Amino acid sequence: MPRVLLIEDDPSVREGVELGLRRRGHEVLAAGTGEAGLASLKSFHPDLVLLDLMLPGMNGVQVCRKVRETSQLPIIMLTARGDDFDVVIGLEAGADDYIVKPARTEVIEARIRAVLRRLADPVTRSGPEFHGELALDRAGLTAARNGERLALAPSELKLLLHLAASPEQVFSRQQLLESVWEHSYHGDARLVDACVRRLRQKLGDTAGPDGAPRYIQTVRGFGYRFGPL
Amino acid sequence: MRFPRRRALRPGLRTRLIAAFLLVAAISAVTTAALTYQSARSAILKQAQDQAIEQFREQIGTEYFALPTSTAALQNACRTLARAGKPHPWFVFAEYGTLRASSTNRPTSTVITDELRRRTHANAHGSFQRVIQDGTPYLTIGMPVMFDSFTDQRSGVYLYAVMDLTTEGVTIQAMVTAAKNGALPALAIAVVPALLAARSVLRPVRDLRRAASSMGKGRLDTRIEVKGSDELADLAWTFNESAEELERSVEELQKAEARARRFASDVSHELRTPLAGMLAVTEVLDEDADGLDPDTARAVRLISAETGKLATLVEDLMEISRFDAKAAELNADEVDVGETIRKTLQRRHWQDRVITQLPDGVRAMIDPRRFDIVVANLVGNALRHGSEPVTVRLRPGAGDGPLVVEVADRGPGIDAAVLPHIFDRFFKADAARTRSAGSGLGLAITLENVRLHGGTVRAANGPEGGAVFTVELPAGVLGDAPVEAAR
Predict the structure, then answer these.
(1) In whole angstroms, what is the distance from residue B284 CA to residue B174 CA?
(2) Is the pLDDT of residue B349 over 60?
């Protein structure tokens, strides 16, 4: 069962979520502040971080950035609906997904599973595949550009692999939400947009003839596609 | 509320002002001209006749009449007198008993009336009369010839002078023409002050109208510049006072409303945190309830179920608060509308309970999350309060027209008295049923979500019974989307 680091300042939410997840067999470490959470990263070795956005002192977005400096640990933000602006900033900072509070434990757990599952996607092909300067290894779950390994967060890697599996096919943002994030069709498309932006940045994907992205291309009104290179 | 404009029926203020001005100018011009004409005419005529009478009398005084006389002698005298008629030539007629003589070919004149004769016979100093014959004005003077100027002894000779007044008539006519010619330019010139006056009156009126219309559009800080101290300035001042008062009251109302909304929003926010903790553990309660004694188990299940409802209610309240605070954002995306509706039904496992007519390829710019709420609320409502089959129909807009989503059920329909309130918050169609599965905010949230899309939603009863909810959304799609892909 996954090890979850929960960073949440409100005692009742912290206790409730911890209790709920523990009942379902997760190993949970709960921290009351961002600082305490970051401090326990090394000793606890979590598989995933559940991060409240509104924290006293160091806020959730800052914690998220701090974690991303050193690792591509899956991060799910806990937010209250209406903190829309913070959601976008949190996603830009590198969070993989978010959950709106209040939420039932089953919802939280389903989201945790979804984020972790994408790393264990069944592999149909073996050996790395090459797309221009990119080398994708579906078995090893790595991506490299010009032989240099890229540090991709789980959602970014999954999105890249998903798009690259069907080059030149256009996926709507709703389709991507369903297949990459396992959200409903009506989920928040900003998840996709933020992830694409992060991914393009990491791929250095502004090398097209007119400065437009080469790998992950926008099809206005419809969504995104990989290539044509 | 709008009143029909009266402009078409009555001439404008400007027209009426100018008309009044011109009327006044015309009346004064005509009156002045008439009076001037009247006095000038009589002055001219009087001068002419006084001069003529005086001259005639003088001439007669110098003429010697030997009595008894003959026609030839009289005629001679007449001719002499006629020659002396200057500057006006006159014809002279003489009567003595039955003798008639004149300076002309005819012995008598038709212009000399019996009336003049009678007055000449009666008055020693002579008489005159103005006669118009065949359109020509004549002055006729009658004068008895005395034996001498000291006694009033009449000689029996009566002399008459007939003078043509055409020259005077022409002079008078020239005056009339001059008055006429003067009046028209005067009227034309009067238009200028009329326009100026109309402008000076109309400008404040126009300012007032503009200000009133601007207030009507919600700009309550509209004020009018107060100029001068006339009635219009008073009006402007009163307007400003009223506007200020109105602005103040509206501001207070808005503040009060904002406070109320903020309170609702704050309460929901505060409720949310404890709810988040409670909701996370409801499953623990549900799972363990079986092992508890029956009463405790019921209590625990009740708490669990109500926590879920409370969470829904608080979420809905938060959503409404965001609409009230205008903080609700539309994250629109171009999507396949039919597909979006299908996914909504699938997600809630309604696809077997709902008949759908969803054509493919209907694309629109909508917020999928909000559209999901709209469809889910309407279909959920139909399934709860109406009866199956529930039908969801999608019709693409014709041309630039809106696309239409219709949710119909086969239930008893909606009471006509209830229809206008169906989208009100916490409105319950059935007063006896105080609680239902929904929060009581579902349709209100639906309405707000549709409005946020720039669309409309209305409720009605179908022709075959049952309630019909119709959503119309503007079918805006990205202009440069590839056409072939959209098909």
Answers:
(1) 119
(2) yes
